[in-house]
Amino acid sequence: MLHAMQRDPADRFQTAAAFKAQLDQPGRVRLTGYCDRLKTPHWRLSFRETPVIAGTLLGVGSSCSKCWHSSLSVISWQSNLVKLRRQLAARLALNRETGVCRWT
């Protein structure tokens, strides 16, 4: 089975028929001890991958920051609009009561 999963395509079965023939006759399989020499992979970042990952994270972070900032500005704009509407309503009510138009 490990022969079918080799990294290098030249080391794998060349055809599906060769793979099936090996599976159909397990007694003819040559044991190489390859499974005893396997090591667990160590995940490390290379110098080529690090700038790509850092750039991606910076791009995503700046986009999230811009969205957050724009949502905050919309919220503050809406709260200012509510305040202005309340002030306008209060002035209109005062003008109706007094009959004097003061907008300053």
Tell me about this structure.
The mean pLDDT is 78. The protein has a domain at 1-37. The protein contains three helices and no strands. The protein has helices at residues 16-24, 34-37, 49-98. The radius of gyration is 36 Å and the shape is rod-shaped. It is mainly alpha-helical. 61% of the residues lie in helices and 0% in strands.
Shape: rod-shaped
Query: What does the radius of gyration come to?
Result: 36 Å
β-sheet strand percentage: under 5%
Secondary structure tally, helices: 3
State the end-to-end CA separation.
87 Å
Oligomeric grouping of the chains: single chain
Helix percentage range: 55-70%
Average pLDDT figure:
78
DSSP, total strands: 0
Poorly predicted ranges? none
Major sheet attributes: none
Query: Which class of secondary structure composition applies to the elements?
Result: mainly alpha
Order of helices and strands: HHH
Question: Topology, please?
Answer:
Blueprint lengths: L15 H9 L9 H4 L11 H50 L6
Task: Put the structure in a nutshell.
The chain has a domain at 1-37.
Name a few traits of the molecule.
104 residues; mainly alpha; 3 helices; 0% strand
